[in-house]
Amino acid sequence: AKEALRHGISIKEDNIMPSFKKAFVTVKSEHPNYGSRQGMNTRTWWANVVKRTFIDAGVSEQDLTKVFHKLSDNLYDRFRTAEGYELYSETEEILSELAAHGIKLGVVSNSDERVHEVLSSLGLGSLLNFILVSSEFGMEKPAKQIFDKALELGEASCQETIHVGDDIENDYFGSKNAGLRSLLLRRLTTEPAPPSSVQVISSLREIRNCL
């Protein structure tokens, strides 16, 4: 909403998130995995999301057209740096601790190539042995192939690897079905309780007890 206001478009903040979620699902359905198999670049993919978001939130197409390309580009570039994100308090501490103990660390993300820049901007790049992004790899979690590739990049076996993620299907069951040990990160108690068989942690600090 703030970025839109800079471009002369007034919109209620409360309208943005529901419209964004709807637009994201629609574009993802039309162009899976950021359009990687359709020859679409990720800037164009996200431009489609931005357009659908603002129109669904009540902005007229006429008003949006006047500023659309600059607005879309600014939003895309904002979320390629630390400006668009905030780390949880324990993240750098725990990753630094694990890396200092010689534990290999990697990121497997259903996202686009900006993840490399984002993690570097957040000061985490030097702690990671690899970053595996679905738009570059060509497949998304929960596909077994992306977890197999992560094991290859980390030069590790599934028996000695723990995958931590906050999505029960893509992260927990995806990695578990690939043979890895899985931890579901649930920071909010308001989320639906997972099955009792699912191993849950509420903070990255709890990883210490799982090694």
From TrEMBL:
GO MF entry, a single one: phosphatase activity
One Gene Ontology cellular component: nucleus
One Pfam family from the record: HAD_2
Transmembrane segments: none
InterPro entries membership: HAD-like_hydrolase_domain, HAD-like_sf, HAD-SF_hydro_IA, HAD-SF_hydro_IA_REG-2-like, HAD-SF_hydro_IA_REG-2-like_cap, HAD_2, HAD_sf
Protein name: 4434_t:CDS:1
